[in-house]
């Protein structure tokens, strides 16, 4: 197997694995972002696999495969725009999926005659328009640059490089090595995303969190703040600070500090750790986490160190995490 095909299939497997993790992992919140990103990754996995199989001559290129690949490429771009917008608290109209649907319907009705008229350049231009729209959403977001999810810039950059390879391939059709540029850029894009996920235990959560506007400064109560903590779980971020929680709640950091200082019996970190311990209690007795070590659960809920986790857990429950699990599961 040539090395290009090996890399492409490896990247396709990684993309499919990440997508299935997003779809079925019990640890992740069920959000629109989770489904959109999973769909995007499945589309990438299919296109990389299809290119590798056809390029190596293992599968003959047929009108049906041309249609599936073309539709998948447009669906991929629509899911990409939807995911970028959702991650920035924006919503896109369902019409963003219209090009993929229209292409599929018209191709089915028109058959091979219509497919023969479809040109790669047309699909590429539509994809570029999608990516430009996603970039515009990112750049015009009301959230400050530092508050925008960092991985979105990586995704936009990866799509930009892929479009550059696509345009180069169209403009230089006689240069042989450029033919492999698009799938190889896509391969590097997915493998890089895989490395980012594997090197950060909270990466998938960050990719699938979908913050919504909080209760607002006029009606923020401790109960409302507790609800933000329970439903959106910002405490999973080990680096969470007052400013970060305030963004999740949709209020100023001063208001969050005042509320915690006047209505709880501890500091901001005591308040956050209380919710982390509550989440750890839930995970320790969750059958799906029966093989997850106590130390790993501490990291999953946002504690930076084992000693901090044990101290906070013992202070709240009077037991060590291991004793708590043994007593209840046993």
How would you describe this protein?
- It is elongated and about 70 Å long.
- It has 2 domains: 3-208, Rhopdopsin 7-helix transmembrane proteins (Up-down Bundle), CATH 1.20.1070; 222-329, Orthogonal Bundle (Arc Repressor Mutant, subunit A).
- It has helices at 3-24, 32-55, 63-87, 98-117, 120-139, 150-171, 181-198, 203-208, 222-232, 242-249, 253-263, 268-284, 294-300, 306-317, 321-329.
- It is mainly α and 330 residues long.
- It has 15 helices and no strands.
- Helix 3 runs antiparallel to helix 4 (98-117).
- Helix content is 70%, strand content 0%.
Distance between the termini: 51 Å
Shape: elongated
Which structural class do you get from the secondary structure elements?
mainly alpha
Q: Report the biggest beta sheet as strand number plus sense, adding barrel if it closes.
A: none
What's the helix-strand series?
HHHHHHHHHHHHHHH
CATH topology annotation of the largest domain: Rhopdopsin 7-helix transmembrane proteins
Number of strands: 0
Q: Into which percentage range does the β-strand content fall?
A: under 5%
Low-pLDDT ranges: 212-218
- Cα-atom radius of gyration: 24 Å
Q: So what's the CATH class of the largest domain?
A: Mainly Alpha
Q: Which CATH architecture of the largest domain is right?
A: Up-down Bundle
Chain-averaged pLDDT: 84
Count the DSSP helices.
15
Q: Percent helix among the residues? A: over 70%
Number of domains: 2
Task: Write a compact overview of the structure shown.
This protein has helices at 3-24, 32-55, 63-87, 98-117, 120-139, 150-171, 181-198, 203-208, 222-232, 242-249, 253-263, 268-284, 294-300, 306-317, 321-329.
